[in-house]
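[agent] plan:
  1. take the single chain provided in the ticket
  2. run structure prediction with default settings
  3. attach structure tokens to the ticket
  4. add a short note for the reviewer (M.T.)
[agent] executing step 1
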Amino acid sequence: MLNLNKHFLYYLLASLMFIVNTGKACAEDQKDAPLEIPGVIKVFAEDIFTLNEKIPNLLIIDARITSDRKHGYIEGSINLPDIETNCDSLAKIIPTKKIPVLFYCNGVKCGRSVNSSKTALQCGYTNIYWFRGGFEEWKSKSMPFLKS
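[agent] step 2 finished; step 3 output follows
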């Protein structure tokens, strides 16, 4: 009986540690995105229409995971989750490092577009836009979007 209690206590302790660590990770994910990313141009929802008119070859990259995209996405955007964004994956969809590219994710509580923008900078891309408000701002301003 004593061995069973030791195993139970060990299991309980391990479970509590997992819950605490998982909660901590979730809380860290809920930090607001930075206000600025050095080397990147921050834009708002309304700016995207103007950018599309001025820059016909603007690529819009949705840095969210596929399950988030099912709730809606900006028309014409390409899905490349931040966890899959690296120099090779960017090179496959962006022909040259000077092509203008805009990254977005869910909103200010989402860091995926921050990660993707920083990765693009590290890979040598020079014309990067970042939509900090993301899909949350897009929807709140009744901008058109598509659902899969």
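[agent] step 4 note for reviewer: DSSP finds six helices and five strands in the chain.
[agent] ticket updated
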